[in-house]
Specification:
Among the domains are: 2-73 and 161-219, P-loop containing nucleotide triphosphate hydrolases (Rossmann fold); 229-278, no CATH class. Helices cover 33% and strands 23% of the residues. It is built from nine helices and nine strands. The chain has a six-stranded mixed beta sheet, sandwiched between helices. It has a three-stranded antiparallel beta sheet with strand order 2-1-4. Helix 2 packs parallel to helix 4 (144-157) and helix 4 runs parallel beside helix 5. The longest helix is centred in the middle third of the chain and has 16 residues, at 174-189.
């Protein structure tokens, strides 16, 4: 791939993972090679049991690879910043503080951020996810979606080089999902490497690269364009051939293209589709 020439954030070299199962072991991720360039927005998609969460935990070094190695680039900047943070699907596993504010600053204190910076970093992270007004509330009174946003705020606050969202928007209502996506976009613009893991393909609008997993193996690795739209001579897109349903905007665009309408650039959202259609006039 063209990104091979760019400096990496994470390199997976022949990585596989097997876990104990009835009668022996079960391979959850097959030998995988993956180069994730600095600052890339990588989306990982797949059905339940495809290996997405296993891959996320291997990237974060929460699981030891059965074979192969996971290599991090040298971390620039302040030594107290963690290299990678992961936002899990279940937010209850990371609740630490007695208040929302204390929960966010827990990581900042734990990693040794300068005391004079901690309050501002914590409040800025809460503002990004829309929880500033609940700073003094107990995490116990938050809704499931608010707990997910709180978990995200704690990870945003410590400014990792790589931020992994492991189906982090799955419990969120549409407005909260957009808030979380916007927070991820702002960090991406600042240079953070984003790994966004999901089953919801309408969350892939910001992705620069998509990797699809099936039975613990990579079955697609390419751009949004080549995932959602068929190349010349192909029957159906990679998305459709792999059994996924494209986002509504892409479905409409594909139907228009079948009827001979040209769309440029190729749209991935309703807003982009509207702009492409308005260009006909």
């Amino acid at each position: 791939m063209e990104n091979k020439m760019k400096a990496s954030s994470i390199d997976l070299q022949g990585v596989s993972y097997a876990a104990a199962a009835a009668g022996g072991t079960k391979t959850l991720l097959q030998e995988t090679d993956m180069h994730i360039p600095k600052g890339q927005w990588l989306a990982i998609v797949g059905a339940n049991g495809s290996g997405k969460s296993t891959l996320a935990k291997l990237m974060a070094k929460l699981y030891p690879a059965t074979t192969g190695t996971v290599v991090y680039s040298n971390q620039p900047g302040a030594s107290y910043r963690p290299f990678v943070q992961i936002i899990f699907q279940n937010p209850d596993v990371q609740m630490m503080g007695e208040t929302v504010y204390e929960d966010v600053r827990f990581g900042l204190d734990n990693y040794g951020f300068p005391s004079g910076e901690i309050h501002g970093l914590a409040m800025n992270a809460l503002d990004k996810v829309g929880l500033t007004a609940l700073a003094d509330a107990s995490p116990a009174v938050l809704s499931g979606g608010q707990k997910q946003l709180l978990q995200a705020a704690g990870c945003l606050a410590v400014q990792p080089e790589v931020l992994i969202f492991d189906e982090a928007a799955s419990m969120l209502d549409p407005m909260s999902r957009q808030r979380l996506l916007q927070a991820a976009r702002s960090l991406h613009v600042e240079g953070t490497t984003i790994v966004w893991i999901t089953q919801l393909l309408d969350e892939l609008e910001a992705s620069e690269r998509i990797v699809a997993l099936e039975s613990g193996a990579i079955v697609f690795d390419g751009s949004r364009e080549t995932f959602f739209y068929p190349r010349s001579g192909e029957v159906g897109s990679a998305c459709e051939r792999l059994g996924f349903s494209p986002p509504y905007a892409v479905q409409l665009a594909l139907e228009l293209m079948k009827r001979g309408r040209r769309l440029h650039p190729l749209p991935f959202s309703i807003e982009e589709l509207g702009k492409a259609v308005s260009a006909w006039e």
